[in-house]
Amino acid sequence: MAVAWQDELRGIYHIAIKDMRTYYLKPPAISWGMVFPLAWTLAFYLRNPGDFAELVPGLLAMTIVFSTTAAEAVVINFELRLGTLERLLLAPIGITSVLLGKVLGGFLFGLFTTAIVAGASILYLGLHPDILRLALIAVPSLMVFSSMGALFSVAVKEVFEAQTLLNLPRFLMVFLCGVVYPVSALPEGLQLLARLLPLTYTVQGLRISFFEHGDPLLWRDFAALLFFLILFLLPAIRLLHRRFR
Amino acid sequence: MPGGEPAILVDGLVKRYGELLAVDHISFQVNRGEIYGFLGPNGSGKTTTIRMLVGLAQPDEGHARVLGYHLPAGISQAKRYMGVVPDVSNLYDELSALDNLLFMARLYGVPREEQKPRAEQLLRDFGLYERRKDRFSTFSWGMKRALTIACALIHEPSLLFLDEPTTGLDAAAARSLRSLISGLREKGLTIFLTTHYLEEADLLCDRIAILVRGRIVRIDTPAHLKRLVQMESLVEFTFRGDILPLAKELESRLGEAKAALIDPNTIRIYGGDPAEVFDTIFQFSLDNAIGIEAASTIRPSLEDAFLKIAGLSPRVTSAEKSPGKGRR
Ligand SMILES: Nc1ncnc2c1ncn2[C@@H]1O[C@H](COP(=O)(O)OP(=O)(O)OP(=O)(O)O)[C@@H](O)[C@H]1O
Ligand SMILES: [Mg+2]
Known about the structure:
By secondary structure, chain A is mostly helical. Chain A contains ten helices and no strands. Chain A has one domain (2-243). Helix content of chain A is 81%, strand content 0%. Chain B is an alpha/beta fold. In chain B, helix 3 (97-107) crosses helix 4 (112-125). The chains are: A mainly alpha, B alpha/beta. Chain A binds chain B through residues 4, 6-7, 10-11, 14-15, 18, 22-23, 82-84, 86-94, 244-245, and chain B through 54-58, 76-77, 79-80, 82, 84, 86, 88, 90-95, 103-104, 106-109. Adenosine-5'-triphosphate binds at residues 17, 20, 22, 40, 42-48, 87, 196 of chain B.
């Protein structure tokens, strides 16, 4: 059995690495991953010039969401359509590991993209985030949104369907989760809705890691993100299993 | 891997898609070192059977053991020793031939130092070495097929599944692929392949199972099956008028041979002595004053031949194709 585990882990690793190499430079992944969050943040800044540093947690949160979900839509739906995903299942790898490999690939792409955006903003604006706390929020967030992308992708057949379907939660979250307006500024009903969306906890956690290092609320954000990870990952695995019954 | 057992042992396997029985209680055994063919027309359940044996689909009933491992529980162990060539060549378009092979080698845990030498050897064996750096998407159909087979061999499996390996290849490419397949058997591989062509099965296989509508209707040596199929004569007559009302009479006159109405004017006659059949039909047309418009002998379609071999009436086929026109 130990050997079987090795097979699965090796599979997860190589699928993730292959996806990074193969799909990173695909136009949809790049444009959705980086360009949109930057453009959105800049537009907001130009309309409302002030303290740009305030916008950095939101910018990173958006980068996390858009890079990971865009990557998943591409790596899962291209492969489902071309039948290469089936090919992966012929190797001594379970369906669960194939999906985990895909989620890990999206995670790595998101990490890469977010690290660039974070590094650039930190250096340019001379910010001093608590790097450990930043990682404590960014890492599970990348996993959460990569899994969310996977979940929406296995539910449909084509890349464009996945991208379209994903726009609903993506834009809902950009408006409601404190990316540009604080959640506390929203009407009460929308505040409640914001609490049900994972990005709220990402933004809040990132804000703490940038500006309020000691705030213990960070742990609540971390726990909430783990909860969302399970909430997205399990049904994604279930749905993919169903395709090969 | 448990040794000594047959490579594949299947007992009462069933796969349903809704109402459709895609695979209908099939049982067979593939011995080690043998090339075993699944021969059958479109939609007879060949691919579905392979998908169940390689873990891409779950059987609804029955048991299967592959390389001694019970399915589905032992599928992950069995996969280590199985190579699979699906009916479509589904490798990565964006990767080069070499990178596709290397990726597969990594997935199967081929030792690092062996990955490249094995990949390059396979590229040479399959005549693709010169094109190793080109993307898969730039390959012709036949080259894609060849690379897909090479990828299935990268982890040196002991059992190889080939779903229609030569479909879509020109005669020369098919021939060279067949000789590669024969070469693999020499190396001790067990091969399970599907095909539409009796000729191909005859050239490659030690034994053939004939599959019709999800059922194995016969398992035999290719030589034997070929003889049976060739014995099936088939003659078709088109009359100048409707012979539906005369069908009963015609049938009684034909004796040994069996008739099937294709449409109200056309009848197909299976078996019997062709000379006698012509005689009978000629007399029949004179007696009923109904002229013959056309007569032809037809090579039996594989399905017709298989149905005959299986002892199933081809009439059932005609009745299905043209509802209401079949008799009885
Ligand atoms: N995923 C599926 N959903 C529904 N029906 C299916 C599915 N896969 C196969 N079938 C049906 O099962 C039957 C057997 O199909 P299968 O692909 O196994 O045939 P085959 O012998 O491989 O045919 P071919 O020679 O055309 O490849 C067909 O009637 C087909 O329509
Ligand atoms: Mg098929």
